């Protein structure tokens, strides 16, 4: 049986999500896939849990945390050796519909000129699947690094309220399928970013090569990210990297106009962002929010071991 899709998972302190994810993988109607997992030196037995729940998966344990970017890049080397047509980058905190792989594969085989395809992503909340859209169509002003998501936040009675498919500027790293032949000409994630903002960087390069991305509502998944305000450490880390990596993006591609607009906007909205960050994650989040901006300006890259 030929493997057509390699599914890549990067594990890090997410053992509690794996049963839901791996159960949904086992239930797939499309069977021509393998699962490669990279454990980023987790200390919550994520690797052991993966092997217990999915013994057929290929697991690699790292002795250090390479981040989302480094883990997926390391796996991609093995994926390309496998010779599969497609690679699916997938978060561990998701569950997928039983026809998820079938529908993404159908879309990619039908539209040969499309090099990447993403699903309809609903929010998962308190362990339950909702009909609230997190991401579907995503558009980006790459010069200013401003995204728009016209479907986010909508609560749907049926997915038919959305277009069957649409061309988009980029895809969420939560779940996206890419033709492996793309990596003959470009690499996957920028490891300098470590965490967050990788999709923007990737699809900027992707678009410059005149490649096409699309989404289909027929492929559905649920993202069980912890949306609670009580998850302050996660928010602190997230917004540090989001701010820092946006500036690193501007500097990498010499997008001076975007950089100036971004910094002026942050200064102008400082009173509002101060109130918002303190409510969301305390004084430390406000500090890390601006530390991220400062580190971006200074060009500090990779993992911050002090978060």
UniProtKB/TrEMBL annotation:
Matches recorded under InterPro entries: Glyco_trans_2-like, Nucleotide-diphossugar_trans
Q: Does the keyword Transcription regulation apply?
A: no
Q: Does the keyword Transferase apply?
A: yes
Q: Which residues form the Glycosyltransferase 2-like domain?
A: 11-140
| UniProt-listed Pfam families | Glycos_transf_2 (PF00535)
- Record keywords, A-Z: Glycosyltransferase, Transferase
Task: Spell out the molecular function terms from Gene Ontology.
Answer: glycosyltransferase activity
Ranges in coiled-coil conformation: none
In terms of SUPFAM superfamilies, this protein maps to: Nucleotide-diphospho-sugar transferases
Q: Which Gene3D superfamilies does UniProt cross-reference here?
A: Spore Coat Polysaccharide Biosynthesis Protein SpsA, Chain A
Q: Which family does it belong to?
A: Belongs to the glycosyltransferase 2 family.
**Entry protein name:** Rhamnosyl transferase
Species for this entry: Marinilabilia rubra
Where is the organism placed in the taxonomic lineage, from the top?
Bacteria, Pseudomonadati, Bacteroidota, Bacteroidia, Marinilabiliales
């Amino acid at each position: 049986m030929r493997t057509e899709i390699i599914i890549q998972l990067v594990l890090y302190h997410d053992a509690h999500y794996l049963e839901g994810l791996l159960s949904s993988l086992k239930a797939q109607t499309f069977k021509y896939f393998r699962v490669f997992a990279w454990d980023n030196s987790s200390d919550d037995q994520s690797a052991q849990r993966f092997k217990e729940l999915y013994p057929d998966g290929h697991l690699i344990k790292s002795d250090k945390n390479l981040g989302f970017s480094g883990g997926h890049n390391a796996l991609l080397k093995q994926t390309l050796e496998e010779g599969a047509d497609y690679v699916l980058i997938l978060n561990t905190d998701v569950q997928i519909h039983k026809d998820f792989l079938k529908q993404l594969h159908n879309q990619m085989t039908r539209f040969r000129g499309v090099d990447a395809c993403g699903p309809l992503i609903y929010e998962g909340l308190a362990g339950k699947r909702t009909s609230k859209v997190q991401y579907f169509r995503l558009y980006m002003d790459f010069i200013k690094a401003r995204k728009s998501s016209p479907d986010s936040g909508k609560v749907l009675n049926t997915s038919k309220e959305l277009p069957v498919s649409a061309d988009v500027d980029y895809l969420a790293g939560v779940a996206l399928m890419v033709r492996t032949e793309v990596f003959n000409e470009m690499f996957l994630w920028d490891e300098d970013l470590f965490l967050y903002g990788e999709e923007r960087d990737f699809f900027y390069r992707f678009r410059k090569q005149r490649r096409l991305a699309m989404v289909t509502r027929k492929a559905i998944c649920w993202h069980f990210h912890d949306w609670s305000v009580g998850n302050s450490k996660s928010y602190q880390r997230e917004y540090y990297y989001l701010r820092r990596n946006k500036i690193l993006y501007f500097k990498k591609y010499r997008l001076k106009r975007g950089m100036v607009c971004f910094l002026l906007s942050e200064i102008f909205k400082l009173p509002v962002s101060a109130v918002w960050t303190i409510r969301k994650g305390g004084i430390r989040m406000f500090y890390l929010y601006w530390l991220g901006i400062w580190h971006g300006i200074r060009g500090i890259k990779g993992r911050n071991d002090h978060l």
